[in-house]
Amino acid sequence: MMNNIVIRTLETIDELEELRRLESIIWSESESIPSSQTITAIKNGGMALGAFLEDVLIGFQYSFPGYDGKKVYLCSHTLGIHPEYQKLGIGEKLKLVQKEEALKKGYDLITWTYDPLETVNGYLNLHKLGARCSIYVENCYGEMQDNLNQGMPSDRFTVEWWIKEENPARPAQYKVGNMLIKPDRDSNGNLVPAEIDLKKDAADDYLFIPVPSDFQSMKKNDPELALSWRNGTREVFSHYFHKGWTAIDLFRSEIESDLCYYVLKK
Q1: What is the pTM of this model?
Q2: The sheet that has 47-53: what strands, in order across it?
Q3: pLDDT tens-place string over residues 182-205
């Protein structure tokens, strides 16, 4: 099936209305972006990409230009896949085409946000694409009411993907040490953040931040435990990013299936 997926730019009102309808399926009608806005962005340095299976739109990516007073870059705002086609690698294909199209437009930097406790996104963004992050935003979008975010502060990483650069050098396998959160187990075997270390700062080392691999299930089964992971990781990431550390990778534990590790480098 993946060989039959075609990714191309979306440019007409009809195509962007199709994008809006897909957005409403993935999230909700209230979350979908009006086509009048997307087409204006596209005409002024932005882009929309569609993933098609037999001429049916099953995924999309939408970006608009950004400017911070010093530099122009591309803001990768939304990426969505129809629920029936998720976790098949379509998101990665969309991001790689986005990179190609952004280079054609003259961009060298793409930025976007994601929840650092959503490890599928983290693995794609940092490990596969080679993006990196040193900016942590607390409650970035306020209290969100959609199914994925309801009941939890909308903390986000701001990712930087320097698309003209080679991916950062990383070892084939990490020797896990220098953990900034000590993971433990409660009486039910659930992963808990037991201790936090804010004193490590050896510039030649990697630092590791363990996080639960399935945060959505944890939120449903134990919201208080999920909130403790949100608060603990918020404290650690914010502290070390402020000290000059950068998140460069994420990988799953080979021993504990419910555990992943972020890798920080100074």
Answers
A1: 0.92
A2: 5-9, 47-53, 56-67, 72-81, 109-114, 156-162, 132-137, 246-252, 259-265, 206-212
A3: 999 999 899 999 999 999 988 888
